[in-house]
Prior knowledge:
This protein has 14 helices and 23 strands.
Amino acid sequence: MEFDFVIVGGGSAGSTLAARLSEDPQVSVCLLDAGGKGTSLVLRAPAGAVAALPGYGKLFNWAFKTVPQPGLNGRQGYQPRGRALGGSSAINAMLYVRGHKSDYDDWAAGGCDGWSWEDCLPYFKKSENNERGSDDLHGDTGPLQVSNQKSPRPITLAFIEAATQQQFRHSEDFNTGDNEGVGLYQVTQFHDPARNGERCSAAAGYLHPVMDRANLTVITKARATKILFEGKCAVGVAYRQGRTTKEVRANKEVILSGGAFQSPQLLQLSGVGRPEDITRHGIEMVHELRGVGQNLQDHLDFTLSYKTNDTNNFGIGLTGTARLAAAIIEWWRKGTGMIATPFAEGGAFLKTDPALARPDIQLHFVISVVDDHARRLHLGYGYGCHICTLRPKSRGSVFLQSADPDADPAIDPKFLSDRHDLETTIKGAKITREILQSQAMAGYIKKELFGVKDNMTDAEWESHIRARADTIYHPVGTCKMGIDDMAVVDPQLKVHGVKGLRVVDASVMPTLIGGNTNAPTIMIAEKCADMIKAEHASR
């Protein structure tokens, strides 16, 4: 089979690219994805994320693990990634967050011309169909439906009030470029009457509505095994479907959109990267590129949790079970209620020091006790607040465990390898606990969990963090964009030193943005789609 463009990975970036590139009927596009179609009711229901997150059976989730982390007492971290069209946007908390405008200005200042906040803002707007309408900062005609919270819990509103009692400002919109403050998150959720309350993954927004295009071929359950090269020009992709290995050829470009773990993995499997990561597995080198798999950055997350007598949230008990049954009916009929929740309904971007130029921690207030990524359940009802350091200085890597394409990549975030990250997390935990102990939250507290208590020393906080912290699912950077020696792609997202190959996903971010990464990944794909169209139209 031959196509103009072959895209590997149908996640947030791949779904966006496939839809945008196939808008031209004269262009043929093939999208390969190792997962399913992403239309399951579990994925369409926002609360279904709690079933997909633990990764049992790897039905919708790759459920990767890290190598043992010295900074986390030698524990292996857990790295869930979506395994279906839509990728991680099919199993995430749906939060629509762009980050701080300075994050993008930093990219541009570091050699990524064309990627400043002002350069990126039009593509955020282009992607967006915001329930609030359009203005200078938001769009209302894009494929990605962005909604207000359908049914925020009273306890979430109490958290917001508690933060304002601690003199943090209230924010009506985290996506203006200055995200400081506390408030409700907007979410990637349908607000049109036909699908009101359903998750709007990148596949649901961009890809599923155009799957019948004659020039678009989507192949699911297809595991890419190798990029095909002629010399140093990418000409196609080998993939495995069932027990059969097949090939698809690209007349114009091969585009990798496998994410921060699987894009570098496929490059290494194909002989592109550091020789020490490749040749020891018996793989022939095609092109040495020192940055492949390096520069891994992720948001380490630490959670404060409480038990409560309030049953108007997620929990395990007779009252909650009865309410859950009613909530399913409400969501099916109206798109509202408990099943419509993203769990992380409220949050904040705060400074641990007022002198800082921008927030350095993010909070996610969650209407349940989330312990070990929902893999460890608690009887009764609870709530919690997640704290992450927005711009970690720790840097890790992704590398091959073997030459077997079906083997998981080795993931080493090197969490807390830089002391800065630990110190910021401790400051953030102290601030967050003060919010959670404020007057507005006092009536909800039944019991504080995991041994956290008053007047803990920094050494005690460090012990708690090293024992329980883990990712909040924002890995980036392993195919970084730039012009330095460790850059993998240039500002047009073309892989340095080879032809016919781009990487378009979160792996190209040179530095981690100060917030959730799904909306920025979709923006990157929107922007690159226009680059690709402009380049090939001129030929």
